[in-house]
Amino acid sequence: MDDTRDTARWATMVLDAAGAVVRWSAGAEWLLGYSPADVLGRAAAELLWDGQGSLPGAARRSLAGREPWSGHVRARHRDGGPFEVELLACPLRDSDGTAQWLLAAMTAPEGAHRGVAVTERSFTQGDWPMAIHDTELRLLRANARMCRVTGLPEDEMRGRRSGFLAGNPVNEQVETAMRKAIRTGEAEHAQTLTRAAGETRDQAWAVSLSPLTDETGRVCAVAAAGLDISELYRTRERLALLNEASIQIGTTLDVTRTAQELASMPLPRFADFISVDLLDSVLRGDEPTPGPVSGDVRLRRVAHESAHAKNAPEAAVGIGETDTYPEFSPPARCLATGRAVLTGPWDTDYFRWMDRDPKRNAKRTDFGVQSLVAAPLVARGNTLGAALFSRRLHPDTFTEDDLILAEQLAARAAVCIDNARRYTRERGTAVALQRSLLPQGLPAQSAVEFATRYLPADSRYGVGGDWFDVIPLSGARVALVVGDVVGHGIHASATMGRLRTAVRTLADIDLPPDELLTHLDDVVGRLASEGTEPVDYDVIGASCLYAVYDPVSRLCCAARAGHPPPALVAPDGTVEFCEVPAGPPLGLGDLPFESAEIGIPEGALLVLYTDGLVESRDRDIGSGMDGLREVLGEPSRGAVSLEATCDTVLRALLSDRPADDVALLVARARALDAGQVVTWELPAEPALVAEARERAAAQLAAWGLAELTFTTEMVVSELFTNAILHGQGPVQLRLIRDRTLICEVSDTSTTAPHMRRARVFDEGGRGLLLVAQLSGRWGTRQTPTGKIIWAEQALPA
Questions:
Q1: I need a labelling partner for 463 at 20 to 30 A (CA). Which of 31, 173, 523, 788 fits?
Q2: In 3D, which of 325, 322, 372, 364 has the Cα closest to residue 347?
């Protein structure tokens, strides 16, 4: 029996009177798995599955009466599972009278025995780490593979509470799954990440947990088997990282911000420190460098991030600084080959690079580098720069698979950086175009003192078509204009320029605000119809506010087309939005516009703006106008300079990255005093022409402008005569002493005069030609009761 375990059928053991094992045969060791050292001195009842409860009642009675008994019992195998045997128990008595028992257990038939042996071998010799735990999660059995993984022998682990891998910290996820399997009696699955003994990298395991039951169906243990899924796990991690990169890198069309996203997104899962260096041409938005770059390379640090400390103390180059990388350095090597370079303390070129720069070498000494990957930033065949990924505290060194991942991260970021570079160039062109189309060096006005601001939208949205203008008009009046073309980009800027030109042209013929917007509406409609490509009609739409202020009457006549109303800040600080009828946006056609007259006190502020100032994604236009009212109504606002007022308004109402362009025009109203304006109303009689000349001459003498008497008398004579001949009375003559001398003659006729070429013998037709020759400017404008012909002369030096 001791020599033939494969064919042995009996296992014998001897118990003393107390039921403790005193002898243990080799057959018993083979059958139940226990060595003599495991059982000698132990109570035999401990080897039964349920202690004495496993014995039938007849067996307990026979044993109590010291009578022989045989039958089937369930023993506890060393692996923790139940094991059914046929048991024969015989009482013995030694020569000294000591009572003992001889137990003989019959093995299963040969086929069943072979199955038990194969099962045991599959557990002990299996390539998967396997273990059996009791219901308190204490280890009962562990196979050889599990022992190799943990680096601990089975005897040392037995009885210890652990997770899947005994000897390692309890994995909460696996422990939870174990308890659930014990509680429900159903198989569970879990994953855990741990580092096996002797390994340099973490391993991922898929753990299968199977509950084990006794003959009553009660769960008495749980078996755990692990499958190494490290490669699958790392592949999934790489794919997840790339997926996150596609979402988190390139959220804006800003080169620096995109570089910052590349430097921060993979931390700390992929690297401990990441830096991004770019060619200066990329930052300027210039044409990039095609193909690889060889030799020493000069790059500018745009972004860097550390996973373990703020302000990236590992960095040897500061943000915004440039550094020249020698051709043997990792960044230069990756740019020359177009492929990522893996290096570290094992690479002689790495130490050459460190030794070349004392500052970088000092950083290496202070922080150390485990491994480093330099990846080229290349997009559309153009070289943009390089990204460096460094590990010093990361548990794993970079591998060839990580090299591929670094290349993919850099490639995705490079496309986003190149998109941002292209957009920067195009946006710069659009901004330059728009600024060139906006008024430059507006002339000073007697009617108003003004300040203006134009603020482009954030780079994500592009340049828009907002504009402002201040246009001198006849009679010392001034036109204040703000407008907004729908859309963004060069098309919107070009359309804005055309509309601004149209407004200036229409203003030059002195149209009232409502008529001017009607003509401008026609212009927008024609622009939409002129497109060679199909364009949405709304894209050519625009809004505009046109206001004319007269410093003599102190009245402002305004009309608006789809535009927010102007704000009026009275000298006492009261703020109100002017009640100007809301006309439709420009470009709709066939809809009327209305104008309104507003009294403007001297010193009051008139604030014109585009909707980008008061409307945004997180604030409706009503809330924005309330905010504008609050800012403009601050105490002492009237005493603050107009430039400071503009800055305060923008700072209070706009975010750092506004979604729309903003045009702002703040004008302080002035008034011409009575001593600067004289008006005479005369009947339309030819005899009064001389009287008109005399009155004008006397007023010029009073103003100290006697040297303008001759030309002024000629102008007054011709204009007054023209009004008598072609209009109806009464005739009004007005002189205005402003930056120029203005002479105005008004009548009740709506017929506009025009110059004509008179023949040699014609008696008339030379009056307006003479006025044009004597004046610096002249013109005519319609009024509700007729027309006004005016002429301006420069004042003496």
A1: 523
A2: 372
